[in-house]
Amino acid sequence: MANVMDTFRRVIEGDFSERSEEEREQHVRELIQVGSVSAAAVSVQPVPLLDLVLVSPIQIAMVQAIGRVHGHKLTQKSVLEMLSTFGASLLAQNAMMAAAKFIPPFGWVVSVSMGYALTFAIGEVANHYFVHGRGVGPGELNDLFKRTYKQKRSEKENAHKDDASLKSKLNQLNEARKAGLLTEEEFEAKKAQVLENF
């Protein structure tokens, strides 16, 4: 997760004023993908309610980075206010993801799909908000968030509905780390690689 936050930090501290629209859009696409995969990766953990602590910083930093690409500097407080205007409050997300962990037998798939889809939808809405000069109303943002979230979650769940191989791969990586065969850094890199294809 440290590498992800470093990536976001570099963007937040960067200057994109000389970049073309296409270059800025490419940066945003990469930020959304990195943020979504990272949120999915930390959603694998089995402890309900811990997701808020792990996923929220990723989402906040991603929105700050997207804002920076579009020439805006945002505080964490302003990001939280923005998220609450379109129904993506962090408490609501946490409640949904915590509840998903209790769904047998593949609650982890639902939770990982939700972590990915929620973060992807937040990134898309943030990008839309900044592209349109921050003049977009809460209703439009809320609709875009719901549509994007539903689509991405459905895509991820359908792709892995009956697939236990993801969990198996992640368990194998975890066992290799516990056995000392992988360093923490190698484990995180390989986990991100597995989830990239999720």
Number of helices: 9
Mean pLDDT score, rounded?
81
Can you summarize the main beta sheet? none
Number of strands: 0
Low-confidence stretches: none
Rounded to an integer in angstroms, the radius of gyration calculated over CA atoms is 17 Å
Globally, the shape reads globular
**How are helices and strands ordered from N to C?**
HHHHHHHHH
Architecture overview:
The protein has 198 residues and is mostly helical. It folds into two domains: 2-158, no CATH class; 164-198, no CATH class. Helices cover 75% and strands 0% of the residues. It contains nine helices and no strands. The protein has helices spanning 2-12, 21-43, 51-69, 76-85, 90-100, 107-131, 138-159, 165-178, 184-196. α1 (2-12) packs parallel to α3 (51-69), α2 runs antiparallel to α6 (107-131) and α2 packs across α9 (184-196). The longest helix is centred in the middle third of the chain and has 25 residues, at 107-131. The protein is globular and about 50 Å long. The two termini are 17 Å apart.
Task: Output the keywords.
2 domains, mainly alpha, 198 residues
Give a brief description.
By secondary structure, the chain is mainly α. The protein contains nine helices and no strands.
Topology diagram in text:
Blueprint: H1 2-12, H2 21-43, H3 51-69, H4 76-85, H5 90-100, H6 107-131, H7 138-159, H8 165-178, H9 184-196
Helix pairs in contact: 1-3, 2-3, 2-6, 2-9, 3-6, 5-6, 6-7, 8-9
